[in-house]
Amino acid sequence: MKRFTLSLVLLAGLAACSDSNFVSADEADGAYHGDSGYGEAGGDDDDDTDIGSEDESDFFSLAPAPTPTFVFIANPERDTVTRVTVPDLEVITAEVGNHPDLVEVTPDYSMGVTFNSGSDDVSIIESMTLEETRVDVRENLDAMEMSPDGGWVVLYNSLALPDDNTSGATSTKEVSFIELTTATHSALAMGFQPRDVLFTEAGDKAVFLGDAWLGVVELDGELSVDLVQIADDLLDPPASEECILSPDGDFALLRQKDADQLVLVDLITLEVSRIEVGDTPTDLDITPDGSEAIAVARGSGELWIYDFQDPTAEPTVLSLPAGETLGSVVFGPEGAPALLYSTASGRSRFVSWDRATDEFTVRPLPKPVASVGMDPTGGTALFLHADTDADDMDPGYEGHFGLSMVDLSDFLSNDYILPAPPSGFAHSDDGLNGFLILEEHKALQVLDYGRLLVDEKELRSDPVHVGTLPTTTWAYVNQEHELGRLSFYDIQTDTLKTMTGFELNAGIEIEEN
Amino acid sequence: MTLLLTLACTTGSAWTEPLWDPGLAEESGVLYARLPHAEALARLNAGGQSELVDLDGATPDRLVSSPDASSLLVFSSWLTCRDDDPKIETVEDCLYEDRETERELALVQDGQVTTTVDIAQHLDTLAFSPDGRVAVAYLGGELSEGSAGGLADVDSVTFIDLQTGEASSTPVGFAPGNILFTPDGASAVVLSRSTAVLVDMDTFQVKVTYDLTLDNDTEIDPSAAVLTPDGSYALVAVARLGLLYKLDLVDPSIDIEELAGAPSALVVDELNDVTVITYSNAAQIDLLYHSDFSRVELDVDEVNTGLVHHPDGFALAYREGGRDVYAVDLATEDVTEYVVANPVDSVQIDEAGRFGLAIMRPEYGNAGGGVDAYTDARWGMSVLEIGDDEARNVVFEQYPTGIELVAGETTTHALVLLEGERDALLVDLADPYPPVEIALEENPLAIGSLQSGMFWITQNSSLGLVTVLDPLDPDNASTLGGFAGLGLITDDELPRRGGE
Fold first, then answer.
1. Cα(A455)–Cα(A93) distance, rounded to whole angstroms?
2. Residue B434, preceding peptide bond in cis (omega within 30° of 0)
3. Chain A contact present for B254, CB below 8 A
4. How many CB atoms lie within 10 A of CB A22?
5. Residues 6+ apart with CB under 8 A from A276
6. What are the distances in angstroms from CA B86 to CA A98, A256, A505, B81, B82?
7. CA-based angle A49:A292:A327, to the nearest 5?
8. What is the DSSP-derived secondary structure letter of residue B21?
9. Is there a contact between B254 and A504 if contact means CB atoms under 8 Å apart?
10. How many other C-beta atoms lie within 10 A of the C-beta of residue A27?
11. Is B252–A510 a contact, with Cβ atoms under 8 angstroms apart?
């Protein structure tokens, strides 16, 4: 599963998911890219060979759910983290390490964690007091993930080292583990450079995904890694594109590039087996209740449905509508229709899947799909369209990004041409509204899911991150300003309140007299 | 006490220093005058003999009355000689290179020095706490060569307890230039270059420091500041930037409001809990409501550089050199525009809030004759009736050396001194013509007011002359003269020789 380097990057497709509420305020670069691989215009939908991989964007993923009483925003350029208190909107800034790029918050909201790439350390911040504990980690790491129970964060190197790396002896195969309650650090040589890390729901295991190997680490006691070979060819293994874990943590299911089988790893015995899948699987997902794993076989136009309790059991195979190129699936909450689409086909359409009847319906869009999401209630689907043109697109969309809102109860839709590339999105908790920001466009787009309308609220400077404050009717927008600028928008009263200069608060000295 | 203008009094005197300074100061209803030649301070006892105040040999350099005139603070100095040879008794005995100047601040009450305070030589300005208990000395003017006595601490101010005389120097940031006191007197906000501090008025220690910039290379120069009526926020305007810093003094934090331009003036109206903001580069007047810091923009025709406020809830905005004066009703947000005959020099409002008075200056370069040319070439005043939009213009035949407003029970008068005119003119602003002439003994030099509501007018007399009067009852004026003769014969003895 590829990941957009967005300012709010998290889980895909799961409603009411609150994984992290720390976000990088200045991570606007690469927020949304139009090169979603549409491939050749007018290509035959039955010919899957030339259109490239599906781009499973999590643009519409739920924003890192902020704490019930706080929102935390990291400011990499100023080496600070800002805490906004809900509902009185008190803003306090605290200094952390150098260039805090990544942020996470524990599920109980008691701690926030920033990865400070400039100083190769992690700041563990007590939510109420903003007291910071700093822990050194291994050098040249660039990715951080938190276990579901908030007990651990793991950091690893997911990218290639720069050509001008002068850090001395450097490895891309090291992983740092920090146990948060004790702020202790452990380092392991993984044996390969991880593409991703997943955690079992219980939080007792971390599974590192590589191309030839899987690394399993029990998060308990003295850490060690169990390596599992998942490719026959160790010299030129197929790229591991996606991995999912069964809810009970017993199985890992992997999708490899260009493979015609899925790799099943028993996380208890560490045995590897392979299971059949259709031609060119391009997406692998879990149903909302966790009982089934779904693979989209774009090449054969099929959905392969596995019982996640027993993945080796005979799967159910559904044939997708003939002539349609579909490579990805997104689920809403139980009861909501699932949506199938392709970001690579270059066709302006999607398919709704009634899970009760397994009925598929092909539906039009104004432009091809670049990204899909649903509001937390599953009532409205949101489609983003890139600026790449297609033969079957609606007039007026030439060279423009677009947004479509679809009511999933009756599939009534409304479509918008956007003046700039989208750079951030957040849903309100109640599923009634969405909030969208665009690159270098000084406005907040307020989406009304009920009426399928978008209104624009003017901002004072370019937005870099948008989020919502839970248990309130507020959305917040972090904007470019050398001293920090935050706007809070109240949906109920249609008022916009802006605070500027909160970065100065970190420098306020209060004497203890 | 206000002083619009003073003239030096050196009428054919052979001495290098004038005998007396026409700019008087009040303490508890009594006037004081500096006698520069005698290097002394005279207490002008109405109805009795004037007398010198014993400053223990110090020369009074400057007089400052406390806001309620209950105390008089005297910046004073005296010469000392580094050479402690007992044969050196006079200034002349001491070699020039051995002479030094010592300075102090003396507190005078009832004609007596009750306490003296050592303060840094370069501190030349005082701010007073609302209860008059504390004075804060800081550098308000320019620092010239030698004025600091060798070392100038430009990062500190000095807090002076006027009751005990205790002084405490507190570092507050570079070049402190504005001091505000919370209404309860518990704290003071001191604004310096790129810094603001909150000072505890009991301990004179800094409680909170607010840095106004993250980058030391970026200079934030506070140009104006006010406190909200409840004392919970300081609103700080910045020179050359369209920013208003809002400093939360209760839960320390900073928020910045972006404005239409760099503010030219700020005033606070307690009645409507609002701050009025004018701009020199934007034709608007803003009202910033303290309840939620929402801002209302009132469009006007001209930019404004000055703002005068009245506690009844209105303000007058004007531009120096402009012709428009805007009255803003802070309750209704209504704006009334007055157009005056000549360019505005300054504006004031009478205590009763009945009239605004725009002092106008000559306007040159206009061709033509008649009334226009006559008016253009002269100073004058424009009477602005509050609640109406008419401006009634009055032309002065000579330059006005002093103007004071006198608010009576039913009307307001202006007491006007004109250059070269011996009589003072009492002008009923509701009906300016004809003015009442108040006869003085000599040509007036300066004018000021007393806490009692009376006025004093110094006049051109070599040995000193002052008349104290109620303009509305000029027949009961009292005149005091000759006080400059006190200490006329001086010796050159070094004061405080052989110890303090």
1. 31
2. yes
3. yes
4. 25
5. A261, A262, A304, A315
6. 68, 104, 60, 11, 11
7. 20
8. -
9. yes
10. 22
11. yes
**C-alpha span between A111 and B368 (Å, rounded):** 80
Separation of alpha carbons B179 and B204, rounded Å: 13
Judging contacts by C-beta atoms under 8 Å, the chain B residues touching residue A90 are 251, 253
Q: What is the pLDDT along chain B (500 residues), one digit of tens a residue?
A: 444 444 444 333 455 788 999 999 999 999 999 999 999 999 998 776 899 999 999 999 999 999 889 889 999 999 989 888 888 888 889 999 998 888 899 999 999 999 998 888 788 889 999 888 899 998 877 665 555 556 667 788 999 988 888 889 999 988 888 999 999 999 999 999 999 999 999 999 999 999 999 888 888 999 899 999 999 999 999 988 999 999 999 989 899 999 999 999 999 999 999 999 999 999 999 999 999 999 999 999 999 999 999 999 999 999 999 999 999 999 999 999 999 999 999 999 999 999 999 999 999 776 567 888 888 999 999 999 998 888 999 999 999 999 999 888 888 999 999 998 999 999 999 998 899 999 999 999 999 999 998 999 999 999 999 999 998 888 888 999 999 998 777 677 788 876 54
- Closest by CA to A89, choosing from A473, A438, A442, A463, is A473
Q: What angle do CA B351, B355, B360 make, to 5 degrees?
A: 110
User: Over the Cα atoms of chain B, what is R_g?
Assistant: 25
Show residues of chain A in contact with B205, CB under 8 Å. 511, 513
Q: How far apart are alpha carbons A328 and A36 in whole angstroms?
A: 13
- Distance in Å from the first CA to the final CA of chain B: 33
Pairing of strands A328-330, A338-341: antiparallel
Mutation target vs B (from A75, A92, A479, A483; most B CBs, 10 A cutoff): A483
Of B209, B255, B256, the CB nearest to A508: B209
Domain residue spans of chain A: 1-33+58-159+474-513
Whose tokens are 């006191």? That residue is B181
| Count, residues in chain B | 500
Distance CA A245, CA A55 (A): 21
Q: A92 phi and psi, to 5 degrees?
A: -130, 135
A138 — alpha (psi -120 to 50), left (phi > 0) or beta?
beta
Interatomic CA distance for residues A79 and A97, integer angstroms: 6
Residue of B nearest to A78 (CA): B214
Closest by CA to B77, choosing from B121, B26, B124, is B121
| Distance from the Cα of residue B248 to its chain's centroid | 28
A500/B200 touch (CB, cutoff 8 Å), yes or no = no
Strand pairing class (A22-24; A70-75): parallel
Q: Where are the beta strands (DSSP E) in B249-399?
A: 253-258, 263-269, 274-279, 284-289, 295-299, 306-310, 314-318, 324-329, 335-339, 344-349, 355-360, 380-385, 391-395
Q: Please answer whether residues B240 and B262 qualify as being in contact, where contact means their C-beta atoms are separated by less than 8 angstroms.
A: yes
Burial (0-12, 13-18, 19+ Cβ within 10 Å), B487: middle
Q: Which residues contact B369 (CB under 8 A, 6 or more apart)?
A: none
Bridge partners of residue B263, in order along the sequence:
B279
- Between the alpha carbon of residue B118 and those of residues A508, B62, B137, the distances in Å are 32, 15, 11
Does B214 contact A502 at a Cβ distance shorter than 8 Å?
no
Measured CA to CA, the distance from residue B231 to residue B208 in angstroms comes to 15
User: How far apart are the C-alpha atoms of A290 and B452, rounded to whole Å?
Assistant: 87
| Residue for token pair 């007992």 | B86
Please indicate whether, in this complex, the C-beta atoms of A499 and B255 are within 8 angstroms of each other: yes
Q: Is B202 on the interface with A (CB under 8 A)?
A: no
